[in-house]
Amino acid sequence: MMSSEPRAIVAAHGDLADGLVSAVSRVAGAAAAARLQPFSNASLGGAELVDAMRDAVNSTAAQVVFTDLPAGSCTIAARRIARETPGLAVVCGVNLPLLLSFVMAPVGEPVAWHPAVDKARSAICIAEEGARAN
Amino acid sequence: MPIEVYRIDDRLVHGQVVVGWGQPLGLGFLVLVDDVVAESAWEQDLYRMGVPPEMTVHFESVAGALAHLDAYRRLPDRGLVLTGNTATMRALVEGDPAIRHVNVGGLHHRAGRTPRLRYVFVAPDEEADLRAMAARGVGLSAQDVPGAEPVPLDELLSRSGG
Predict the structure, then answer these.
(1) B76: which residues sit within 8 A by CB, 6+ positions away?
(2) Which A residues in the span 110-129 are in contact with B, Cβ-Cβ below 8 Å?
């Protein structure tokens, strides 16, 4: 039975999506990670990628597709699906802080994407000691 | 400046093209040759979004590409010509003798295709296209990213398994 909690596809190159979802599980717990469906573009051509991602979106009732690379095939496929799926968001440049914001957000409230993305972006930083070394 | 790469890739604009080839070769522009994309503003926006600001993407039909390839070769930047299938690249090769090498960058799994490499699966009609280009003296090799070892066409088509 499908949970009422918002769900997401994490679409990325290679094994990155599996790794990110695994990391969410370690940090936020298995129940939180279960709201994320990892998806890899490995071995899929452009059309097959769209078909497979559409199946993933439909089977999970996902509200968002997180992708890794703005220029990547996952993003191109997700934007094609978003065009035919009202309400489906596509958020590029996924990182662990962004996924944690998603799974930790209050249930029942619409996700505020811009603040969530700003927060995730701010998590990319140069550690002070490293900056001193340079 | 010559066009650096003529690439067949069924994902068209994606990470391997923009980052994998684009950065080490210092590509300034892409020419995406596809009759459907050339007619669709939405498709063009979709692919344009994937290209970094320092890179330009041009959209051409096959006829348009054949008319404009010489002009692209005179641009000061390095460029890459991209098609999504073998038939389109074959049409370019047959119409433009200046194309001397074709990169098979990605033909992924699909019903009717035989696995040759992890990223190259070839159907009989596609094999015929590749061989027809080779018969014109064009060199063909499979290579997904610049750091990978290129696989010449004869070796590619003799392989079985992804």
Answers:
(1) B1, B28
(2) none
Is the predicted ipTM greater than 0.95, yes or no?
no
Report the CATH number at residue A41.
3.40.50.510
Choosing among 1.10.10.10, 3.40.35.10, 3.40.50.970, 3.40.50.2000, the CATH entry for B3-158 is 3.40.35.10
Containing structural domain, residue A69:
8-133
Distance from CA of A5 to the nearest CA of B (A): 30
Q: What average pLDDT values come out for chain A (134 residues) when binned by 10 residues?
A: 75 97 96 96 92 96 94 94 94 95 83 86 83 56
Interchain CB distance below 8 Å, A75 and B50: yes
Contact list in A for residue B108 (CB cut-off 8 A) is 43-45, 48
| Residue A46 to chain B, least CA–CA distance (Å) | 4
Res A114: pLDDT: 85
The structure tokens listed for A31 are 């129940």
Of B50, B108, B162, the CB nearest to A71: B50
In a domain, A118, yes or no: yes
Confidence at residue A1, expressed as pLDDT on a 0 to 100 scale: 39
In the chain, the amino acid numbered B151 is: V
Q: Which of B3, B6, B5, B1 is nearest to B92 (CA)?
A: B6
Tell me the C-alpha distance between A24 and A31, whole Å: 10
Residues of B in contact with A45 (CB under 8 A): 10-11, 106-110
Nearest to A54 by CA among A68, A74, A34, A35: A74
Q: What's this model's pTM, rounded to 2 decimal places?
A: 0.87
